[in-house]
């Protein structure tokens, strides 16, 4: 959240001092309502109107959705000089990933410089839905699936309820393919959940995160989020 006059100035409409004058004069609306106080803070999803012109407030921040390939680190920098998720994004802005995917996990990861949204999305209470496709060693049985759904103990704490769907079984190669949807974001959670019921994860891909999926992207490709997608993310963590 940033002060209204600072956001108006940052968006290049006018100087901060003049923005303060416009606010006091009743020339500024936030989400359709006139704001005359100077202390008001706004977020990227708020609509700001100055002298009847709507400003594109989302320009303040950058939001990207990357299809992370394997063997890429989910941080802004790596001390061993390995490729990071940030290396894929063509921007001069200092952005960072929202949460983490393991080095060998592929799939959807968000990157932004919006610290407020990042904190909200990654907070344990956020309840954001994440869907993974998991390939495991072995033929999974119904009882293990039920255990994964009901919750298993990982690092001394039971996991919350999950949705688990068996997609296919490869008897010849002794492997199973499943879909799991969780709402928590603990370290290596999916791998540890399957290990706790006796299966090693061979491949892991995040297909969905909140309202977003990988439609139209190949590994290593990315796109910007739309203003609508950003607003929906904010509404999910209100
Ligand atoms: N769970 C894991 O075990 N690894 C990931 O990368 C994401 C979720």
Topology:
Blueprint: E1 2-3, H1 4-10, H2 16-24, E2 28-30, E3 33-34, E4 41-42, E5 48-50, E6 53-55, E7 63-68, E8 96-97, E9 106-112, H3 115-122, E10 130-137, H4 142-150, E11 153-154, E12 157-158, E13 163-170, E14 175-182, H5 189-196, E15 201-209, E16 212-213, E17 222-224, H6 227-236
Bound molecules: uracil.
Structure notes:
This protein is of the alpha+beta class and 238 residues long. Helices cover 21% and strands 30% of the residues. It is built from 6 helices and 17 strands. Strands 7, 8, 9, 10, 13, 14, 15, 16 and 17 form a 9-stranded mixed β-sheet that branches. It has a 4-stranded antiparallel β-sheet with strand order 3-2-5-6. A hairpin with a 4-residue loop joins strand 13 and strand 14 (175-182). The radius of gyration is 22 Å and the shape is elongated. The structure holds uracil (URA). Uracil is lined by residues 101-102, 105, 188-191, 204.
Record keyword descriptors for this entry.
238 residues, alpha+beta, four-stranded antiparallel sheet, binds uracil
Based on CA inertia axes, which overall geometry fits? elongated
Bound molecules: uracil
Instruction: Note the main sheet.
Output: 9 strands, mixed
Distance between the termini: 13 Å
Report helical residue fraction.
Answer: 10-25%
Mean pLDDT across all amino acids: 93
How many helices? The count is 6
Number of strands: 17
Q: What low-confidence regions span 5 or more consecutive residues with pLDDT below 50? A: none
The Rg value, from CA coordinates, equals: 22 Å
Oligomeric grouping of the chains: single chain
Tell me the structural class.
alpha+beta
């Amino acid at each position: 959240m940033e002060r209204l006059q600072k956001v108006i100035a940052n968006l290049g409409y006018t100087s901060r001092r003049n923005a303060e004058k416009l606010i006091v004069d009743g020339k500024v609306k936030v989400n359709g309502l006139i704001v005359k106080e100077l202390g008001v803070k706004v977020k990227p999803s708020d609509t700001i109107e100055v002298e009847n012109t709507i400003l594109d407030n989302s320009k303040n921040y950058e939001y990207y959705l990357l299809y992370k390939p394997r063997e890429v680190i989910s941080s802004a920098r790596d001390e061993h000089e390995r490729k990071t998720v940030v290396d894929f994004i063509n921007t001069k802005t200092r952005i960072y990933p929202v949460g983490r995917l393991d080095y060998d996990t592929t799939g959807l990861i968000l990157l932004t410089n919006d610290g407020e949204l990042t904190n909200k999305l990654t907070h344990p209470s956020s309840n954001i839905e994440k869907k993974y496709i998991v390939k495991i060693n072995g033929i999974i049985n119904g009882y293990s699936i039920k255990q994964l759904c009901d919750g298993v103990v990982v690092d001394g704490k039971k996991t919350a309820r999950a949705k688990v769907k068996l997609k296919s079984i490869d008897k010849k190669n002794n492997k199973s393919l499943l879909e799991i949807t969780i709402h928590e974001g603990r370290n290596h959670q999916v791998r540890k959940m399957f290990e706790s019921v006796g299966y090693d994860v061979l491949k892991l891909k995040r297909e969905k995160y909140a309202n977003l999926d990988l439609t139209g992207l190949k590994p290593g490709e990315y796109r910007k989020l739309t203003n609508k997608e950003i607003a929906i993310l904010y509404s999910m963590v209100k």
